[in-house]
Design goal:
With 580 residues, this protein is an alpha+beta fold. It has three domains: 194 residues, Heat Shock Protein 90; 124 residues, Ribosomal Protein S5, domain 2 (2-Layer Sandwich), CATH 3.30.230; 223 residues, MutL, C-terminal domain, dimerisation subdomain (formyl-coa transferase, domain 3, 2-Layer Sandwich), CATH 3.30.1540. The protein contains 19 helices and 26 strands. The strands form six sheets. Strands 1, 2, 3, 4, 5, 6, 7, 8 and 9 form a nine-stranded mixed β-sheet that branches. It has a five-stranded mixed β-sheet with strand order 10-11-16-13-14. A five-stranded antiparallel β-sheet has the order 19-26-22-21-20. α1 packs across α4 and α13 packs across α18.
């Protein structure tokens, strides 16, 4: 192996390396420029985006502005007005502080910086092309700063290949601006993408209004307010009631001293506060704002500044959990349970039986933890791969599970998951023949947050093929005229909202995959719920429909529809047959 001699990198290469850490995508540019505007005291920030940010990103603010003599310094590396000494790194109170953002952006684009301080009579402009600055020129300009970034990554075309689809890049920018509008409700934000207004906040200081932009008006009205103070830790914000959830953690937002952050400990503290209140695989919505002394948090962890370290991590963890738990209890008080007293206990045989029962129960998803089951002598043969035998209905348990007898033992069927599977396969079978639609007596107007509205707009042609008659009806609003006849008893608004709720990003989905995901979402909402009492005829019909399915053992999302308790296992549990 030959080794190259050690050499000092050129300024151009060093700048592009630094840009790779700071400028990952167009949304990174917007983030850095918006943070600079907020640090400059702006009360109105306007963002203009064309070609998903690749052709143009322009951020204009009415902040303090930059004096003419400091404009060349503003685009120089490691130049900042926010730090004076090394000690300032341990008490950072601004969003920016590294002095790298403008220099990094300018090294991979054509940047024009125009600014005028309020006290100056005229402004000045400076153009930087791939890190090379031109002459400073006077220009007429309003008070504040305008940064225009054109042809992003034009000199590093390999970076362009790593960008996602335009709709995804636009969605990242919209999501970013919406979060800052939530963190700074007193600032008026305006986002225009591809010539259309994508976001417009009023700047009236109402965070719940910003929540409506992020989660939707109906969801924002349901959110529970959190207000708590523990020593130097102040926690405010909103969390959702247990009935308002998503299938992923994308709705969990945390801000520390006005900075959006990602932190596993904060997420864990929040989820623990919901202990036993949420179904498995469901997550709440939350926007929590932590205010702590700057010297107790380290934001100098990563160039993107999205990660932080807390000096007293345990205190933050306890504070968040306690604040959220208190808010949830105030919204939904938990009834007191009678005490069992000091004498109450489980006798050993009963306790052992429950342990063995837990070890012996098998599901299709987990294959029964077979190694542990064999160790206890209670292994049973796996369930048949596809089909379900003819079942005899015994009854309904807890309004949620159907109890049925088969030739090889007892079956517990989750009625919600089973009905999801039945509806899904019925819907997919109709798809090739043309899905019949049910016209609504009166069209329904459905309002969605900007990001969700964009997702739905992209899927309108697909929805038309699935029996939905939907059309755009103003910004963020849609007019629903018909739904698939199969779902005629379902709330039309819920049918449409579920299509975009928790929609996972997929850059190049196949048409069939999109249709299947949409159908699975609607079927989940339309299926009978846990706790819903079914008549004996309805229970019997559900079992027969499930037996006829091609994949009866899981719902469309992969959750098991049934648990099987074999006759052999039951005989062993009751001591009628010894372990082999």
């Amino acid at each position: 192996m030959s080794f190259m001699p050690i050499r000092i990198l050129s300024d151009e290469i060093a700048s592009q390396i630094a840009a790779g850490e700071v400028v990952e995508r167009p949304a990174s540019v917007v983030k850095e420029l918006v943070e600079n505007a907020l640090d400059a005291g702006a009360t109105h920030i306007r963002v203009l985006v064309e070609d998903a940010g690749k052709r143009l990103i322009e951020v204009a603010d009415n902040g303090n502005g930059i004096p003419a003599e400091e404009l060349p310094l503003a685009v120089a590396r490691h130049a900042t007005s926010k730090l004076e000494s090394a000690q300032d790194l341990f008490r950072i109170a601004t969003l920016g502080f590294r002095g790298e953002a403008l220099a990094s952006i300018a090294s991979v684009s054509r940047l024009t910086l125009t600014s005028r301080p309020r006290a100056a009579e005229s402004g000045h402009t400076l153009q930087v092309d791939a890190g090379v600055a031109g002459p400073l020129r006077p220009v007429g300009a309003p008070a504040g700063t305008v940064v225009r970034v054109e042809n992003l990554f034009y000199n590093v075309p390999a970076r362009l290949k790593f960008l996602k689809a335009d709709r995804t890049e636009r969605r990242h920018i919209l999501d970013l601006l919406t979060r800052y509008a939530l963190a700074y409700p007193q600032v008026r934000f305006h986002l225009q993408q591809e010539g259309r207004a994508a976001l417009q906040s009023s700047g009236n200081g109402d965070r719940r209004e910003a929540l409506a932009h992020l989660f939707g008006p109906a969801e924002a009205r349901q959110m529970i307010e959190v207000v708590a103070q523990y020593d130097d830790l102040e926690i405010t914000g909103f969390v959702s009631p247990p009935g308002l959830t998503r299938s992923n953690r994308s709705g969990l937002l945390f801000f520390v001293n006005g900075r959006p952050v990602r932190d596993a400990a904060l997420t864990s503290a929040l989820l623990r506060a919901y202990h036993t209140l949420l179904m498995v695989g469901r997550y709440p919505l939350a926007a929590l704002f932590l205010k702590i002394p700057p010297q107790q948090v380290d934001v100098n962890v990563h160039p993107a500044k999205a990660e932080v370290r807390f000096r007293d991590k345990d205190a933050i963890f306890r504070g968040v959990g306690r604040a959220v738990h208190t808010a949830l209890l105030a919204h939904t008080p938990v009834p007191d349970l009678p005490s069992l007293g000091g004498e109450a206990r489980l006798d050993a045989p009963a306790a052992r039986l429950s342990t063995l029962w837990g070890a012996a129960v098998t599901t299709e998803a987990s294959a029964s933890s077979s190694a542990d089951a064999r160790a206890d002598g209670f292994a049973q043969p796996p369930l048949p791969a596809v089909t379900v035998p003819l079942l005899r209905l015994v009854g309904q348990l807890a309004g949620t599970y159907l109890v049925a007898e088969g030739p090889d033992g007892l079956y517990l069927v989750d009625q919600h998951a089973a009905h999801e599977r039945v509806l899904f396969e019925r819907f997919m079978a109709q798809r090739g023949e043309g899905i019949p639609a049910q016209q609504l007596m009166e069209p329904v107007v459905v309002e969605l947050p900007p990001a969700a509205a964009e997702v739905l707009s992209e899927q309108l042609p697909t929805l038309s093929q699935l029996g939905f008659d939907v059309e755009a009806f103003g910004r963020g609003a849609f007019l629903l005229r018909a739904i698939p006849a199969m779902f005629q008893g379902m709330d039309p608004q819920a049918a449409l909202r579920v299509l975009v709720e928790d929609f996972e990003e997929d850059e190049t989905p196949l048409a069939e995959e999109v249709e299947a995901r949409i159908i699975a979402r609607v079927c989940k909402r339309a299926a009978v719920k846990g706790g819903q009492i079914l008549s004996p005829d309805e229970q019997q019909a559900l079992l027969r429909d499930l037996e006829a399915c091609q994949s009866p053992r899981t719902c469309p999302h992969g959750r098991p529809t049934m648990i099987h308790l074999s006759v052999d296992m039951l005989e062993r549990q009751f001591g009628r047959r010894g372990a082999r």
